[in-house]
Write a structure and sequence with these properties.
Cytochrome Bc1 Complex, Chain D, domain 2; 12 helices; mainly alpha; two-stranded antiparallel sheet; about 350 residues
Length: about 350
Amino acid sequence: MFKLDKFRARLGFATLILLATQLTFAQTGSAKYPGIGRAATPAEVAAWDIDVRPDFKGLPNGSGSVEKGQVIWEAKCASCHGTFGESNEIFTPIAGGTTKDDVKTGRVASLKDMKQPQRTTLMKVPTVSTLWDYIYRAMPWNAPRSLSPDDTYALVAFILNLGDIVPDDFVLSDKNIAKIQMPNRNGMTTKHGFWSVSGKPDVNGKACMQNCVQFVQIGSTLPDFARNAHENIAEQNRMYGPYRGADTTKPPIKELPGSSGVGLAHASDTHSSSAKGPAALFKNENCSACHAQNAKLVGPSIADIAKKYEGQSSAVEKLMAKVKVGGAGVWGSIPMPAQAQLSDEDRKTLVVWMLSGGK
């Protein structure tokens, strides 16, 4: 009985300590703004604190070979960035434009050469930590934060190999990453306010927004006589990026896409009352990164897909298979990444919804 009472006393004391700790978090979180939020717990901070600095603070333990990186690259990266980092119409190349002499000097000579067609990632990025950090937190595009530290080491090793910075049999790890000599490591400047908070700021403007109206209606229009004066504007814009200009061969649209939510695919659309409805699924699976409702982005619009396959009895099965394995050729040379992680049920839900025009 004595032992039981003693255990209860200890348990009660531990409970008081826990409650006091929680109260401390609540009080510190609302001291400046009473009643709003709370301080983040250590576990919550740790979940977000994944950045890797140029001095490699924050870098997790791990390793990965060039060989393993090539396997991961071909499965998860090549659809957007090309088999050899040459990329496609949407993304600029990862590798190219650097030489072994650049690795020795730390300055990329082709950055001053006007004959160099494009600035690649390896030409510009001065720190290998930047590559590691960005890939780990943001790639692949359709599944960010899905790569393990070992996967990230392997991918960075493969990218470095593409630039002839490391040999084919190289294994990158947290133990040797600081020894990597980036081609443009001496091309970075730190003499500006963005790098040093005590330095001169990059922007010298002052707050000037006063008496602003709550809503601005875009009212500019293109006169009818000038609408197609120089032929179709949509065909004269750059061939990468989401905006290609208006199709001036057609009459002007009645409402700008996005001005009231019309014409864009969002998870908040009321196409389904379920949290797992097709519109929410479309958004959560990052389909909206390449497909819009009525406008061509990286891939075709939902409306164009529905029109192309209208009346085809085998359209659902055909597109379900296409979504699963990915590929290019139907709508152009830019490949769609494989979506093998989707269940057959979710894949069918998406396809049926898109074939209906997103209705």
